[in-house]
Design a protein that fits this description.
The complex is a heterotrimer of chains A (about 45), B (about 500) and C (about 100). Chain A is α+β, with helices and mostly antiparallel strands. Chain A has one helix at about 25-30, and strands spanning about 10-20, 35-45. Chain B has about 500 residues and is an alpha/beta fold. Chain B has two domains: about 30-230 and about 245-255 and about 305-335, no CATH class; about 350-495, Peroxisomal Thiolase, Chain A, domain 1 (3-Layer(aba) Sandwich). A six-stranded mixed sheet of chain B has the order 2-1-10-9-7-8, sandwiched between helices. Chains A and C meet through strand 1, helix 1 and strand 2 of A and helix 1, strand 1, helix 2, helix 3 and helix 4 of C.
């Protein structure tokens, strides 16, 4: 059974990316067009 | 899944193989230096902020620092100075901090671990502006010790500024000064004064940071000079510093020149110097630029040096203290690499296969590795089988795993392998074993430019001389977004090959 | 989690309210994903930052989670995230966050 998609339309998005995981700009690119507004996006680097 | 998708043009042929003149650049030597400086950990960025907020932090920190003897018995440090081969890291189960053991006796092959008091005394010797002042009694002890050792004697020719006990007490009362402590010494052994009361770029903490880089960098250059034939201080034409520190003043905060300061202090009197900056990736661009300058004939002997980074000391100390393990980021690390003309022996720097990270490639790790690893191989028309070793970000996992950041090297190799599997260079079943097959276990201090493939150069030289590997690709990455001028990352790779490799 | 990030998240939560916010995570390890999830739901587990003891209760998802994946255009997912998912401990991250939600 496929999962119920989350609704981003109309939401303020907080994006917490990581250098070695999924960086914030990559997440932003992937969710572009889903209607959410990016309120804050940051990418961490732990080394 | 359909193969690998990219918004960039197909890989083969995107960049042309450059046509090159004939001064083939080779790596003629490489060395490392490690300064064990537990008493400077308090001046690392994180510990300094923490100590300001919580007065009891320093007591806990001091209790959790290693002695010099412990640091010398720590496997990753032994691999750093070449007393142990990197393969040993696969054999000893992690963590390593609770398995201290003596390495074989004898001279370490790449460089020494310097004891803290010697390093602190050298800070004052390296300071022409006399902002570092030493207690007279401390210098009376340390001056002869520095003079007696081959490594430190050339760096200790200048007598530093000295203070009596009474003068030192008065100086320590200034709120702008930083006391220099040393393990086993009750009172501070020195003090760093601010360089200018209205210039934050010359504060005592910035000056200390830069002097730590200068001294550790010069130590690595001297280790190099002591370990190779055919290179005296005056033979060095150009020093390229890939250090993380930025020298400057309030009008040009990062505009200065660490390389030339290192060249002067190391006695390279006929050489000059330039800094190459690219966050943690800087060593690879520096090696590429150095090799290109040798190839073009502009310079004959280039030394690429990365000095140690004081702000990174104790970076993960909160996690280490929380878990009751030693604060492992307690040493300043430095590497120096000599790139010169072909001597028929040194591994060549293959300038036909410099991997780069174009703006459009994006920040994701798989895209970075595609550009930095796969693209140069395709350009050379090499399959992955022809590459014997690939080294990237060999951060010591003892430090990062305990800080919930995982094993950086292992993660990199898995991601690189996933990318190669999608590109049909390896089979999916080979992803898990890729790191062991082509890579290296992490062992370097978390000073990113050192942990980049740069730290591995002396091991690569030794493995190529022994016939264990034919080539090694060094891959460095930079988190440009940290500077908040761009969201991008950067990176560069370079391939070094045995001198007798087929052209 | 970075203290600066915590401060910004706290401000945003106060100005928009938790019903209008979604947090998307891209951490590479299970542990770091858990710490971030915890920080924006029940509070900073390290008790070091502005969210120490602050239960924001924000809806938070890792981008590897099935319901995030289901929302993203498959081509975009494949282009941007699929290999990262393959190279990281994605299943463990998804399980860990599901476990935390279940309490």
């Amino acid at each position: 059974m496929s999962a119920e998609p989350i609704i981003l339309n109309g939401k303020k998005l907080i994006i917490l990316g990581e250098r070695d995981g999924v960086p914030a700009p990559v997440i932003e690119q992937a969710i572009a067009g889903l209607g959410g507004e990016v309120a804050y996006a940051a990418t961490q680097c732990f080394v | 899944m359909n193969g690998y998708r990219s918004t960039l043009p197909d890989l083969p042929g995107r960049y042309k193989v450059p046509s090159m003149p004939t001064n083939r650049p080779v790596i003629r030597g490489a060395a490392t230096a490690l300064a064990h400086t537990p008493s400077l950990v308090r001046y690392g960025s994180k510990p300094f902020r923490e100590a300001t907020a919580k007065p009891d932090f320093l007591t806990n920190l001091t209790r959790s620092l290693w002695s010099y003897n412990d640091a010398c018995r720590y496997l990753p440090n032994q691999v750093f100075i070449g007393s142990q081969a990197p393969a040993r890291l696969w054999e000893v189960e992690q963590p390593w901090f609770d398995k201290l053991a003596d390495a074989d006796g004898g001279e370490p092959p790449f460089g020494h671990i310097l004891e803290e008091r010697r390093f602190l005394a050298l800070l004052a010797c390296a300071d022409p502006f006399k902002h570092v002042l030493l207690r007279e009694r401390f210098w009376e002890q340390m001056g002869p010790v520095l003079e007696a050792a081959r490594l430190t004697a050339p760096l200790a020719s200048r007598t530093p500024a000295l203070l009596t006990d009474a003068q030192m007490d008065a100086e320590l009362e200034s709120s702008n000064s930083l006391p220099l402590f040393a393990a086993g010494e009750g009172a501070p052994v020195g003090v760093v004064k601010t360089g200018h009361s209205e210039d934050e770029a010359l504060s005592a903490s910035v000056l200390l940071e830069n002097l730590c880089c200068k001294v550790s960098g010069a130590l690595a250059v001297h280790e190099l000079l002591n370990h190779v034939d055919g290179l005296g201080p005056s033979d060095v034409d150009l020093v390229l510093s890939c250090s993380e520190e930025a020298v400057g003043d309030r009008y040009q905060r990062g505009g200065g020149n660490m390389a030339k300061a290192i060249a002067e202090f190391a006695g390279c009197d006929l050489g000059t110097g330039i800094d190459i900056k690219d966050f943690c990736a800087a060593p690879i661009p520096a090696m590429v630029i150095g090799a290109s300058l040798v190839e073009s004939g502009v310079f004959e002997n280039v030394v690429v040096v990365g000095g140690g980074s004081l702000p990174k000391l104790g970076m993960k100390s909160l996690y280490h203290l929380e878990q009751g393990i030693p604060v492992l980021e307690d040493a300043l690390s430095a590497v120096a690499v000599w790139i010169g003309r072909d001597d028929g022996r040194g591994p060549t720097v293959n300038l036909e296969a410099v991997g780069r990270h174009p703006v459009k490639a994006g920040a994701a790790l798989d895209k970075q590795f595609r550009e930095l690893v796969l693209e140069p191989l395709r350009r050379l028309e090499w399959g992955i089988d022809r590459l014997d070793r690939v080294v990237t970000e060999v951060h010591n996992p003892d430090i990062t795993v305990s800080a919930k950041a995982g094993d950086v090297a292992a993660r990199n190799y898995k991601m690189m392998a996933a990318m190669l599997a999608m590109a049909k260079e390896i089979d999916k079943s080979d992803i898990a074993g890729f790191g062991r097959a082509k890579g290296v276990c992490g062992y370097a201090p978390t000073q990113g430019h050192i942990a980049s493939g740069f730290v591995y150069v002396p091991h690569a030289l030794r493995e190529m001389a022994a016939g264990d590997i034919r080539n090694c690709m060094l891959v460095a990455r930079a988190s440009l977004f940290l500077g908040q001028m761009t969201e991008l990352t950067d990176g560069m790779s370079v391939l070094i090959e045995r001198n007798d490799a087929p052209q | 989690m970075d203290l600066e990030d915590q401060g910004r998240i706290k401000e945003l939560a106060e100005s928009y309210g938790k019903d209008d916010i979604v947090v998307l995570l891209g951490a590479p390890t299970t542990e770091s994903s858990q710490v971030q999830f915890e920080t924006v739901t029940t509070g900073d587990p390290s008790y070091a930052g502005p969210l120490a003891g602050v239960e924001l209760g924000l809806p938070a998802y890792h981008v590897f989670e099935p319901n995030v994946k289901a929302a993203i255009d498959p081509d975009k997912y494949e282009e941007n995230i699929e290999i990262l998912e393959m190279g990281l401990e994605a299943d463990a991250i998804v399980d860990a966050l599901a476990g935390m939600r279940a309490g």
